[in-house]
Input
Amino acid sequence: MPISLDYWTRRSPFFEGARRAGCKGWSVANHMYQPHSYDDPVAEYWHLVNGVTLWDVATERQVEISGPDAAELVDRLTPRDVTGVDPGKCRYTIITSQEGGIVNDPVMLRLAKDRYWLSCSDSDLLLWVKGIAVYAGLDVRIHEPDVSPVQIQGPKSRAVIDALFGEEIAGLAYYTLAETTLDNIPLVVTRTGWSGEFGYEVFLRDGSFGTELWDRIIDAGIPHGLVVTGPSDIRRVEAGILGYGCDIGLDTNPFEAGMERLLDLDSGRDFIGRQALVNIRDAGVTRRIVGVELAGAPLEHGVFTERWPVIKEERIGDVLVALHSPRLEKNIGYAMVAIKHARPGASMTVSSPVGALAARVVEMPFVKAVKV
Output
């Protein structure tokens, strides 16, 4: 359902472009409007899977860390070892609290030896990093730059990027970046995205060019059938992408979320939450996020608006997200369940607004992400 617009919630540089494209509703993330609901979600999904889509994702705010000790501060913030990431490359990371909870799960962009962006999910990461820096005793500057990204996603996205920037930018390797311009518009382009499909992010470095950049992308995309949409929940769930604030959060630790690959606990690095994570690893977790298939008729868009209890004689957890995959022709989702019920093949019942649904645990991802 569309929300009413107010004047105190921030609007992105692309807000008017999104409205002209037919946006029917907005949500709010990082104190800013996030456009969505242009068309039927299934139609938007097929545009993404088969063609190319443009999203306004300026809610993905940047925390810039710069200065002589920038690398040291970034190293303290995340359990993932990013010390070997060279300028021009990106990494998916998590930021953990002293207790081992997930504060945020940003993509880290290393623009220079002493300059990083953390492209963050919906939590006040800027305030967290500023608070850490106050007591870190390091020579760093922390601020939110005038940077706003859009995502161009789908198998035809390379053709659109090629039309805008040429082969050198279009040929970026996965999780790399390039600083560039489009005539006089200052930009950073990365081979990243939240879709599970081949795609790019274009980071505008001066909000005054928002409408001009948006229109340039639209014009470049017309020959390739570009469609403006919002981020696709269907495709990100198929790809096993977790959403901060809906699937994971401060009350979730990386072991519960299946994020062990992002943890470097044995190298001697000292980062926030290290001892807590070692203790959690040694003790084991009591619950875990799993993929689930749910029986029954295709779930309608919008039916999942609150947690659904998962039952196995007693309540063993909750469904975190549930929807219908038109490609798999199945209802799929994630659930946080007691660890003894987290093995693939485990059966359970979900109490939903459309009745009791038989469910079983399956391997994730449901559909592999397209990286090259």
